[in-house]
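FAQ: What does a ligand-bound record look like?

Like this one, built around FE2/S2 (inorganic) cluster:
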Amino acid sequence: MFEDEEIKYAEREIDGKIYVKVARSDEIYDGKGYKFAFEEDDDMQIAVFRVKGKLYCLHNICPHRHGERIYEAIIYDNLTIACPLHFWTYSLETGENINQKQGIKGLRKFDVFEENGEVWAEKPQYAPPKWRAEK
Ligand code: FES
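The answer part, i.e. the structure of the complex:
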């Protein structure tokens, strides 16, 4: 539904952060993740999940090999997710890397909330990733 779309979302500022209206609440099903990409940069992607009714939002790009598939992560009951590409695991609540033997980098976490039947997520700020700047 939203995959691979780069849309200009409605924006608003709350306490100095920019939030974007990414979907209607009834479009975000439980037990599933959704990718939202922003036109400013390929690195600006978020993954919004609803699990047991609650929303979570993480960066969509896995720090391992920069796979853009976190939105398709396997979701476990303990609110851990696994990247579908090579199964690095992260906390859905914090983005923290769960198994530091696989690497220390985690996923950035973003605010997300519902209001009047709409889902609003914090917009990532543009910052070139270190691996790109080092080239
Ligand atoms: S790209 Fe996510 S685990 Fe490899």
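Follow-up question: can I read anything off the structure? Yes, for example: The longest strand covers residues 17-24.
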